[in-house]
Write a structure and sequence with these properties.
Number of helices: 4
Distance between the termini: 17 Å
Structural class: alpha+beta
Order of helices and strands: HHEEEEHH
Number of strands: 4
Oligomer: single chain
């Protein structure tokens, strides 16, 4: 397994522990990924680089990452049906419009705290 794949698995596990009402007001125990797309895409971009992409959904813009040419959507589980990915180029400014500084700081700090504990 290469380093990117190891990081992806580790980050996926960390995010499931890190997401909370402090990282998105839409968070629930039953749907922890709900509302986490913008803030998560920013933190993933900080940690792993790559690009931030977006796709239009019935609920609005959905943000996710492209790393080494591959799409990674860490918050796809928030949706009950398959996503028709359009892979529009986006960026940090647009993704940040889906969150706020407190949520971003919380998730980034929480991921850093949990990294290495898993």
């Amino acid at each position: 397994m290469n380093l990117i794949n190891q990081n992806i698995i580790e980050i996926t596990n960390i995010l499931s522990l890190a997401w909370s009402i402090d990282s998105s007001t839409k968070w629930t125990k039953g749907n922890p990924a709900k509302g986490q797309c913008g803030v998560t895409s920013l933190v993933i971009n900080d940690l792993l680089g790559g690009e931030i992409l977006k796709t239009q959904t019935p609920e609005g813009w959905h943000y996710y990452n492209k790393i080494n040419g591959k799409r990674y959507d860490f918050t796809a589980s928030q949706f009950t049906s398959a996503i028709d990915y359009q892979d529009y180029p986006s960026g940090r400014i647009e993704a940040f419009s889906d969150t706020n500084q407190m949520q971003y700081d919380y998730l980034k700090d929480r991921v850093k705290q949990l990294k290495g504990k898993i």
